[in-house]
Structure formats: C-alpha cells, structure tokens
Amino acid sequence: MEQALQRARQAVKKAQAVVIAAGAGMGVDSGLPDFRGNEGFWNNYPVARRLGLSFADLANPRWFTENPELAWAFYGHRLNLYRQTQPHEGFVLLLEYGKRLPGGYFVFTSNVDGQFQKAGFDEERIVEVHGSIHHLQCVEPCTGKIWSAEGVQVEIDMDSFRAKEPLPRCPYCGRLARPNILMFNDWHWLSQRTDAQESRFKNWLKEIDKKNFKLVIIEIGAGTAVPTVRITCERLAEWHHGLLIRINPRESWAPEGHVGIEGGALKTLRQLL
C-alpha cells in the first residue's frame, strides 16, 4: 500500500495534466449511496426490496410509462438528495491540484449527481457520460431539446414511495418529462449534451498530446458492475501514455505498469494530494 502511494505521489508531482475519473464510490464520503449490489440498493430503497426490483430493474425508462409515480419517486428522491448533499473535501483537493497544472484538468464521470459542478469544477471541463439528473427531457421525446431541472420540485410520499402530482412535464408538448440520464434498455435518451462534453474532452486531449504534457489519470470509486469509467481510463492510459492511479476500496487492481490503491475516496485523496 505504501509503495503504491509513493509511486502515485511521484506521478502526481511530475504530471502536467490530469484526468479525474469518478464512479459512484466518489460520493460515499459525502453520504451518498453507491448502490453496490442488491443489498446495498435495497438498504437505501426498502420499497424496491418489497417489489423485488434491483437497481437495474428500477433504473429503466419503462416505468415512466407503466408507473410514472414510482419512476419519479425514485428519480425525484435522488434529485432531492443530490441537491441537499455537499461535496466532500476530496473534491476540493482535486480541483486545487488540477488548476495548478499547466495543462489543467478534465473530469470524466458516470455519476449523474452534479457534485463536481457543485464543488466548483468548470462546467466546460466535465463529461457526464451517463447524463445528469439536473437536466430533463421529454419521455417521447417530442423534440431534441434538453432543459434544466432547476426549479423543478418533486414531492414524494415515502411510505408508499410514490411521487405526488404535479409530476414534471415537457414544456413543449405537455407529456411527462424524465431525467436526461442514460438508463438501462434506454432507446430515447437524448445524448447531445453528453456528446458536446465528449467533443470538448477529445479536443483537450489533442492539446495535451500536441504539447507532449505528462498525463496522470486519477480514477476514484469506479467499479466493475458498470465498467464504463474503468475501461475509459485504461484506454486513456494506453492511448495517451498516461499513468493510471486507480483508487477503490474493493476493486483496486490495475493493469500492469499502473497503480492500484485499496481505499476510499477522501482518505486516499488526502494521502495522495
């Protein structure tokens, strides 16, 4: 562990640019659930246990058609939770570090919670690869438009776990609205906001390569269940000759030549930065 930390510290000192990559484990120290396994999910949503629904079952757009009150209970509860949550000190440490580097930083996250923006990270330097709960779209969708969820309030009866009317509506056609999040078996997610973020990310990587900046990739709390972040980080490390530092309390193994650190986000970031 100490050897891994020492190697990671050296890489952090020598780096000229950083990719900060995060999965659900990044938010645990802020008090957010990581939904690890059915038990972890059901501990946070007991009604899902009663209904026999896993996270993958419930995070499905079909509920907005079949049971809108249940769908918005789940996403409305998460929207309210993320709005109330304050990012932990690890976000601050990463932001201060990234701003000091000549090539700066870029964030790549599968989280939909908006915590990086809340912590002060530049909106133009974040990729939310699965979308954002703070943006909405039509369930149809009737247009290709995505709009902010600011001002949208969802009241929930937690006993029955049902959202109360009025549910969020599309301002263009009046049908039900849904979060602009990529769900499981989702054919109607509007990706253009994320596409624009990914385009900015690619342009930044080109600049980093052109200037021959030494890149470090700090990946935090990204598991193997939905491996988008892990796969992306491994590809970035290979294609852009960066060192990957993988921080994870349970799945910290890293490809040969890279660094895996077994630990939680906040404690490890304090040790590293």
Note the main attributes of this structure.
273 residues, alpha/beta, 6-stranded parallel sheet, 3-stranded antiparallel sheet, 11 helices, 11 strands, 18% strand
How many helices? 11
Could you give the count of β-strands? 11
Kindly report the spatial arrangement of strands forming the biggest sheet: 3-2-1-9-10-11
Q: What structural category do the secondary elements indicate?
A: alpha/beta
Order of helices and strands: HEHHHHHHEHEEEEEEHEHEEH
Beta-strand residue percentage = 15-25%
User: What ranges have pLDDT less than 50 throughout 5 or more consecutive residues?
Assistant: none
**Mean pLDDT level:** 96
Taken from the alpha-carbon principal axes, the silhouette is globular
Q: Report how far apart the termini are.
A: 16 Å
Helix content class: 25-40%
Q: Give the C-alpha Rg.
A: 19 Å
Characterization of the model:
The chain is an alpha/beta fold and 273 residues long. The protein is 39% helix and 18% strand. It has helices at 2-14, 37-44, 46-51, 55-58, 63-66, 68-84, 89-100, 115-118, 192-210, 228-239, 265-272; strands spanning 17-22, 105-109, 126-128, 131-138, 147-148, 156-157, 162-163, 177-181, 215-220, 243-248, 259-262. The strands form 3 sheets. A 6-stranded parallel β-sheet has the order 3-2-1-9-10-11, sandwiched between helices. The longest helix has 19 residues, at 192-210.
